[in-house]
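Blinded run. Sample ID left blank on purpose so nobody reads anything into the name before looking at the predicted structure. Input follows.
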Amino acid sequence: VDLPWLWSTTNNVFIESSFFIADFNAVEYINTLFPTEQALAEAQVAIGQLFGKIKDIKDKAEKSEQMVKEITRDIKQLDHAKRHLTTSITTLNHLHMLAGGVDSLEAMTRRRQYGEVANLLQGVVNVLEHFHKYMGIPQIRQLSERVKAAQSELGTQIMADFEEAFPAQGSKRAGGPSNVLRDACLVANVLDPRIKQEIIKKFIRQHLSEYMVLFQENQDVAWLDKIDRRYAWIKRQLVDYEEKYGRMFPEEWCMTERIAVEFCHITRTELAKVMRTRAKEIEVKLLLFAIQRTTNFEGLLAKRFSGCTLTDVKKPEPPLESTNPFLEDEVGDDGSEIEEDLDRPKKHKAPDNPFHGIISKCFEPHLYVYIESQDKNLGEMIDRFVSDFRAQGPPKAGTEDGGAVLPSCADLFVYYKKCMVQCSQLSTGEPMIALTTIFQKYLREYAWKILSGNLPKTSSNSGGLTIKSLLQEKEGSEAAKFNVEELCLICSILSTAEYCLATTQQLEEKLKEKVDKTLVERINLTGEMDTFSNVISNSIQLLVQDLDAACDPALTAMSKMPWQSVEHVGDQSPYVTSVIMHIKQNVPIIRGNLASTRKYFTQFCINSFIPKFINHLFRCKPISMVGAEQLLLDTHSLKTVLLDLPSIGSQVVRKAPASYTKIVVKGMTRAEMILKVVMAPHEPSVVFVDNYIKLLADGNPETFQKTLDMKGLKRSEQSSMLELFRQRLPTPPSGADGGPSLSFSTPTPEQENSRIRKLEKLIKKRL
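Blinded prediction complete.
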């Protein structure tokens, strides 16, 4: 270390650099500094001298500080004196202004110089605020009491002036607006707010006194059929007020709006009273007429006034975007529907009307009349739909109406939309919930009476077809369960149910937008949507059953054929030709009628034929090797047709949906694997069982036994094979439920004989 001293950041002192040497010896270091006792004594003397010098410095510093305090003490006293003097002068000025202002205020009040009083009073009140902490002084307290007395006298005097100018009694208002009253209103702004409120209250009450007389409950014009006269009267009064008194009251008092609002409150009370008295006379048309005129008037108020005087105005919230098609129609001022271009960007609705319901709320207790009327109208509409359907019959095959949505469905939802918009204008509360209940009732009735009630009924085939007739391969020799008209009807009902399902969901969304937020949870049309879903499922099931029934005689013939005695593999069997013929007859009809509901046509294709074919395949027993080869050829032919099922007989070639192709390949491959297992030799048993598990990936012993029945094995042979099958099943993974889970694998078994390979070559050659 080069430096003799180093700074210690920990202790904030200098430390000799020798202390940082690694082999530092403290004893040797002290002996070097103090080699003798005399050196040590000299060090102590030096320390004592150092302490003495430090004490002298400290004493001198204290004396200097005392000297500074003595110098600044006088300066501080002068500063305090200056501050107090300034405050005193300001206070005296305020006191002079207050005293003079109070004198002037009292004099001007006596002379009714309200224009000068308005400005002076505000200044006096502001100055008086500076003396709140001096109220203990008698003179200040006296001035404050004089100000309060002047304010009280002004309030009483102004009220008397208004009473004189606008007497409560008499049919005609005396005098009229004057500059004195206009200035008096400016003074009222400075006085107790209750003075202003009392002036407004009395003026409005006096201004509407004529209305209370003209439209008393016992007057003919008080009834709903003459409700227009009420609104015509207030319009004239507001125009009259603007001309005569518009400049008398300050603009911020919003007197025109206050008169209109008070008129609304009175009208609401009076209408509620007269409707309670004459409730039995209220009819739907009369009620809707009164509501329409009232809501129109409320809309007029919203255009003219801001609603700033309403105490319960809710801040409007921005509307939510919706994909609901019900938004395409809005109601114009004349009650007609305005069509909106769906491609045009939607605009936000105008803010909510703050005056909505200010009068029309009184009609809500009587809206049960409207709800009952809609219940009756919808019931009659459903009955008319039923009678029209019976009279006109189902959609005709080969026409544009075949498979189309029933017109009655659109009529129903158009009427629903009209009712919903109309009711939401009347009320967004409990009446909307009651209307929703009515909607639910007739949605279910439509589904039951028009849709489910008109689905063709299934019936058992009479007679039946012989195997000989099936093998003749004559077109038209087999009869389908439903005729073409019935198939078109099923497709039409399916399409209608799909339309109802989608539109009901949109109806629910729109109802939730219209109803009060507190009631949204009570809007639920899930049950009705499930009803339409059931109609769709039943329709698809009928179509599937029809195709299965048409193919059933051919499949029955397949299962009864003597497959054990087949000697050679030929072309596809006659039953395959019959099945393909039925498919080509029925499927194009169904596809054409379900063109607008492609997904349900695909669902029909998915549910058709394959399960029934495999069930009949298991009934083919016993089967020889050649017979299995023929069945495998037939299965491949059916598989090819089924893969082309969505576009069969169509001029437009369209690729089948991937989901459909996957299901067909999986189902028909299973049938092919069953036949390959049947073709394989059952000896040695272990190899046969392993090949079965590998090809079918089915751990169900019943399926395995059916396969053994197809091979024609005896029961004694089957018992040992079943026991071996159970032993050879792979162990299911830990935690798995149910039976063993087998992975599906389709490689050709090593033990497959040359006849199987020959059959595959034959199939490829035919393709």
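Unblinding after everyone has recorded impressions. The chain has 25 helices and four strands.
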